[in-house]
Amino acid sequence: xxxxxxxxxxxxxxxxxxxxxxxxxxxxxxxxxxxxxxxxxxxxxxxxxxxxxxxxxxxxxxxxxxxxxxxxxxxxxxxxxxxxxxxxxxxxxxxxxxxxxxxxxxxxxxxxxxxxxxxxxxxxxxxxxxxxxxxxxxxxxxxxxxxxxxxxxxxxxxxxxxxxxxxxxxxxxxxxxxxxxxxxxxxxxxxxxxxxxxxxxxxxxxxxxxxxxxxxxxxxxxxxxxxxxxxxx
Length: 233
Known about the structure:
This protein has helices at residues 2-26, 40-63, 69-77, 83-108, 133-154, 164-183, 189-199, 202-205, 207-226. The chain is mostly helical. The radius of gyration is 17 Å and the shape is globular. The protein is built from 9 helices and no strands. Helix 5 runs parallel beside helix 9.
């Protein structure tokens, strides 16, 4: 079990460092002429998706590469993981996210142009498209349900072998393409907790939504799967 937990720490570190790092370091870079050569929202979406693919194929054989308490909770309600293992996984994932955010903070703060952003999630005035709390909650709930449903499906015994990591990464990319302007996209409490601890302010006060909505969405996905509605057999 300790080996699995270490894998979850490492995998979640990769997710947060690459995903949030793309938003903090590479999103809006200007060249000498003042023209933006940054990666933009599409680049951020790809960074999150690619990081999942890398972790899935790198450590998936060890821990399953959940990297997300909402995914692990979905596994519990689907009957594929014990509650005790969920607690260990969730702690490991949060630790990995904090470590990823810490390294990102140390690097980003070394630039005089850094404004203090950490790729945090949020909603309302001054954030993204300034969506309402209800819109943000619904987005995170629905998208996490879809994300965990895909994960449960592609990791089923009857699914094509070798493609799970790619399918999961592409799904996360698609979710980000749709939702970065809504909440910055969490669908993962650990991913939200790590950066929020270093950003403070609104990121902390709004953190509850990015814990509650993804966990609820993941749990529902597992319940629906256990009921046989989204399960292949």
